[in-house]
Design brief:
single chain; alpha+beta; Chitinase A, domain 3; 6-stranded antiparallel sheet
């Protein structure tokens, strides 16, 4: 009887390890998030345009000047990132290669040049999608960025 109870307990333990309480994240399409992005822009007085190909909402405050920004360009930026509930998750200045950024930045940053200033409201699929970046950024979170390009090389 003892052996039977031990075997049952071990089998139950293994079976419980196989169960997954994790729900599978399903990416959200930019079209499904469009009303949420537009509402954020309206609440925050962002006079936006929409890039039909990507679903990014944007406002160019200053286009800047100089050479085009390429994926291989190093850009010095000052920026603020927020969730659409206005929770700020980052404020910093740094230099990065454009190709190291999220797809939404890779798409939107080339719309301006050195000394340019742009606001991007990025669908979650072009941000971190199902891969939350920090405790502040949940999965499938559309993001807002206010970005100034300080230098391009």
């Amino acid at each position: 009887m003892r052996l039977l109870l031990t075997a049952t307990a071990v089998a139950w333990l293994f079976a419980s390890c196989l169960k997954s309480n994790d729900k599978t994240c399903q990416p959200v399409s930019p079209a499904a998030e469009a009303p949420q992005l537009a509402a954020f822009c309206q609440r925050n007085n962002i006079s936006y345009k929409v890039d039909a190909a990507s679903g990014i909402y944007y406002q160019i405050i200053d286009p800047g000047a100089g050479d085009s920004i390429l994926p291989s360009s190093y850009i010095s930026v000052t920026y603020e990132g927020m969730l659409l509930n206005n929770t700020v998750f980052v404020q910093e200045s740094n230099t990065y290669m454009l190709s190291d950024f999220i797809p939404g930045w890779q798409t939107g940053i080339p719309w301006v040049r050195k000394n340019g200033h742009i606001k991007l409201v990025i669908p979650s699929s072009l941000a971190y999608a199902c891969f939350p970046n920090s405790k502040l950024i949940p999965e499938n979170a559309p993001l807002f960025f206010d970005i100034t390009i300080n230098n391009v090389r």
